[in-house]
Design a protein that fits this description.
By secondary structure, this protein is α+β, with helices and mostly antiparallel strands. The protein has nine helices and ten strands. About 30% of the residues are buried.
């Protein structure tokens, strides 16, 4: 079996095993709301049950969070810690953060952009939710691997070229090329003082010829919350605009994006990143290095680029 054939086979087995875990798990069945903490998950079910599950690797609670076993039948509101299940009081679903920007100011910024004759066959439009998004997009115009803002339509939405979703049955060489393009794009953002905050498979696109990766979603306002230092800030009650996003948190999410891009899927819980949801060699080492708990232990993007370039194809 060739190196690429072995890579594809292992990647497909990882993907199939992940899908099987998702199919058998009852963790998120009949879900009303949930909250991912730094080392716990809170779930509010539609039947009124509130459940808190602490991550203790190698135990019942840790296996539930990694979708390896199901939530057992519960008689009431419960906390699962290790192999123990204890009764707890009900907790109300946290109110959503309503720290929204002034829509009038955002709309005014968008209306200063040139009007594009919108063609749905070649264009994509989205509502702007943040002034930073327009500023960021204008700063990075011209980078081949960052989505290009064309202007606005008559309705006041941002307009971009339409690209493909990043689905491909790629080789090691394909993913190496795309990840090198992504690291260059993120390095360019950082050179402009922009932290992406939400690097993920869902924010990647492909050019129509599938040769070039395009990074999108440059709001730099809303971001993922399961990077360790971000999750801890959330648990401590810091408002989202005070969460410590940094180039090092982007590195953490770059690692997550490696897994999601290579496996061509996303997990149900962040604990799967330390369970079954790990990309196959030769990308696993870079992945694990990016996901270090201590930000100071994570590599720089330049070091990630060197590791990717060293992959033999």
């Amino acid at each position: 079996m060739s190196h690429d054939a072995e890579f594809r086979s292992l990647r497909n087995r990882i993907r199939e095993a992940d899908m099987a875990l998702k199919d058998q798990s009852n963790l998120l069945d009949d879900l009303l709301s949930m909250y991912f903490g730094s080392d716990f998950l809170e779930i509010w079910y539609a039947n009124g049950l509130y459940v808190k599950i602490r991550d203790v690797p190698g135990s019942l609670s840790g296996d539930i969070l990694r979708l390896r076993v199901n939530v057992p039948p519960l008689n009431g509101h419960s906390e699962i810690i290790g192999d123990d299940i204890v009764d707890i009081a009900y907790k109300d679903i946290p109110a959503e953060d309503d720290d929204e920007e002034d829509t009038t100011v955002v709309a005014g910024t968008v209306m200063q952009l040139p009007v594009v004759a919108f063609d749905p066959k070649i264009h994509f439009a989205k509502t702007c939710r943040s002034i930073k998004e327009v500023s960021n997009l204008l700063q990075v115009q011209g980078h081949p691997n960052i989505v290009r803002l064309l202007g606005r339509n008559e309705a006041g939405d941002l307009v971009f070229l339409r690209h493909r979703r990043p689905f491909l049955d790629g080789s090691i060489s394909d993913f190496r090329r795309l990840l090198l393009q992504l690291v260059d794009a993120v390095m360019f953002l950082h050179s402009k003082g922009i932290v992406h905050r939400d690097l993920a498979f869902r924010n990647l696109l492909l050019s129509q010829d599938r040769q070039n990766l395009i990074l999108c979603d440059l709001e730099s306002r809303y971001g993922s919350g399961h990077c360790p230092e971000i999750a801890l800030a959330r648990d401590n009650g810091a408002p989202d605009q005070e969460w410590p996003y940094s180039p090092k948190s982007d590195v953490y999410y770059f690692g997550i994006t490696i897994a999601e891009l290579v496996i061509q899927n996303a997990p149900r819980t962040p604990w799967q990143y330390f369970g079954n949801f790990v990309p196959p060699p030769p990308f696993d080492h870079i992945y694990h290095t990016c996901l270090k708990t201590n930000p100071d232990d994570r590599p720089t993007l330049a070091e990630i680029k060197e590791m990717l370039e060293s992959i033999i194809v």
